[in-house]
């Protein structure tokens, strides 16, 4: 069952021309860049998986900040890395998998894992992907 919004707090848009080897722009002009298919020779360029990884990492870290604050833990020096994998699926198409790695200096591993799991329940990207793709959350 999809998660329904009870109140919209922000809407944005982006457009693509040329697909994976094309160009993307955001409605506000902040994103305006060429893309390239992963593994193509030449100058490295962003691709949809790069953009998804960046968005997921930033969003998840913000969720971490908010959940940690409720527990009285300072996570301002933390790092969240989202590793996005693109691969073939049984149906013949392609799918994604994500591994989120959370590092919180000065916090023991068990507490860091607990906070990461709380953030995973709170993060909009996690809510959007839950039940759709494999997402692993790991505190180190």
In short:
This protein is an alpha+beta fold and 140 residues long.
Task: Evaluate the radius of gyration.
Answer: 17 Å
Structural class: alpha+beta
Uncertain regions: pLDDT < 50 for 5+ in a row? none
Oligomer: single chain
From the coordinates shown, what is the CATH architecture of the largest domain?
2-Layer Sandwich
**Largest beta-sheet details:** 3 strands, antiparallel
Mean pLDDT: 95
The first-level CATH class name of the largest domain: Alpha Beta
End-to-end separation: 32 Å
Note the total helix count. 3
Strand content: 25-35%
Q: Which fold name corresponds to the CATH topology of the largest domain?
A: GMP Synthetase, Chain A, domain 3
Shape: globular
Q: Report the CATH superfamily of the largest domain.
A: K homology (KH) domain
The overall strand count is 6
**Strand and helix order:** EEEHEEHHE
Q: How much helical structure, as a percent, in the residues?
A: 25-40%
């Amino acid at each position: 069952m999809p998660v329904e919004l009870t109140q919209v707090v922000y809407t944005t848009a982006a457009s693509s021309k040329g697909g994976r080897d094309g160009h993307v722009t955001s409605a506000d002009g902040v994103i305006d860049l060429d893309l390239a298919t992963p593994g193509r020779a030449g100058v490295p360029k962003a691709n949809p998986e790069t953009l998804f990884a960046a968005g997921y990492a930033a969003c998840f870290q913000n969720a971490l900040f908010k959940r940690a604050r409720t527990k009285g833990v300072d996570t301002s020096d933390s790092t969240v890395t989202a590793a996005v994998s693109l691969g073939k699926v049984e149906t013949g198409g392609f799918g994604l998998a994500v591994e989120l790695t959370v590092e919180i200096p000065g916090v023991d591993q068990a507490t860091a894992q607990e906070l990461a799991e709380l953030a995973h329940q709170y993060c909009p990207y996690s809510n959007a992907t839950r039940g759709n793709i494999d997402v692993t959350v790991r505190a180190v």
